[in-house]
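## retry 2 of 3
previous attempt timed out at serialization; input unchanged, resubmitting
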Amino acid sequence: MADVNRGNRPLSPHLTIYRPQLTSMTSILTRITGNALIVAALLVVWWFLAAASSPEYFAIADAVLTSWFGDVVMFLSLWALWYHTLAGIRHLIWDNALMLEIETAEKLGWVVIGGSVVLTILTAIII
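## retry succeeded, writing output
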């Protein structure tokens, strides 16, 4: 039977009044970086295939990947790799039912964000 009081029920909280938690935002960012790493991996595979194909085709692929756009994409991919790795370690910790308290989980989120930035800069400087 149809619900006759459908219009009288309270509405769900809307995004304008919802305050996202750091843990939810870092979880969403983990999914985004995972998908971005797939795109970056495809670019590297394209570069390798171009190198195996012909010098002319490799020149095109190499020009794209060594341009300013390619440098930005590869630098952001490096950050995504570190972020995704640290977030995966955080999830392994949580899978063992450790550090699940709200304050500790939020600190882990900041560690993942800060650690990924620091490790990215260190890697870019060293390499």
